[in-house]
Amino acid sequence: DPRVRARWDAHRAAVAGSPRWTKDLLVSSLSVVDRGERAALSDHHAHDASASAEHALSGVRALLERPVGERQPKFAVQAYRRLLEDMARAGRLEALLREYRHWKDRASDARWAAYLAALRPEIERFGPTPAVAEALVRRLGEAGGDEAAAAELHDFAASLGSEIVPRLVDELRRAADKEAQKRLGALLAQLCRRFGTEAVAEALRDEDYFVVVQALAILDEVGGPKLVSRAAPLVNHSHPKVRAAAVRLLGKSGGE
């Protein structure tokens, strides 16, 4: 009721100066928070969380660069792992890419090589989140014709291990246009050459014909001895576009 809101606004100044928040005051305040105020609070919270994470990251980095004693590096690596996991959970791709570049810059540093050897299995465990996959696909679209940026994204995706592949297969449903589909397909093909084609082959059973067609095109690009046997059943698929794609692939491969 706008009358309730107006009445509350009339008393807002007096309440703001109250030395102590009571339960009644808190309930009254929260009950009339409007959409704009909720958005402002959310933005403020996100900004504070990001700033806090950056501050913690800089401190941990400093410890990793110049550790003191034998135990400090161990604890610093654990803290660093937690920060990286938070980034992955939130899909903070830019922050993750910044750390990835830092690792590459420190590739010849024996200390950092030891840190990364300890971290790599953990990164492959927590890194391939849906949020990271979504951010990767979005960034691929933003890269446009920038081949260096696309190559970095491909390398970063590979560094996350094989579990990033099924996450990216899920993104096939959301590829908005042919260019986005092409870029995602190229990324998946590269990852399949490294990690195998099982996750993409599984998508041939998807209920969405569009996903099946895209998966078939990726498998065709990668090739392999199982290609014909995987494509052959699709000539009886319920959707004509899948049947047509399977027939073209089998014709090109010499299958029947």
Plain-language structure description:
The chain is mainly alpha-helical and 256 residues long. It is 76% helix and 0% strand. The radius of gyration is 25 Å and the shape is globular.
Q: What's the helix and strand layout?
A:
Layout: H1 2-16, H2 23-31, H3 35-65, H4 71-90, H5 93-105, H6 110-126, H7 130-143, H8 147-159, H9 164-170, H10 178-195, H11 198-202, H12 209-222, H13 227-231, H14 240-253
Task: Offer a quick outline of the entry.
It contains 14 helices and no strands. It is mostly helical and 256 residues long.
Name its key features.
256 residues; mainly alpha; 76% helix; globular
Give the CA-based shape.
globular
SS class: mainly alpha
Please state roughly what percent of the residues sit in beta strands, choosing from under 5%, 5-15%, 15-25%, 25-35%, 35-45% or over 45%.
Answer: under 5%
Look at the structure and give the mean pLDDT. 84
* Major sheet: none
Query: What ranges have pLDDT less than 50 throughout 5 or more consecutive residues?
Result: none
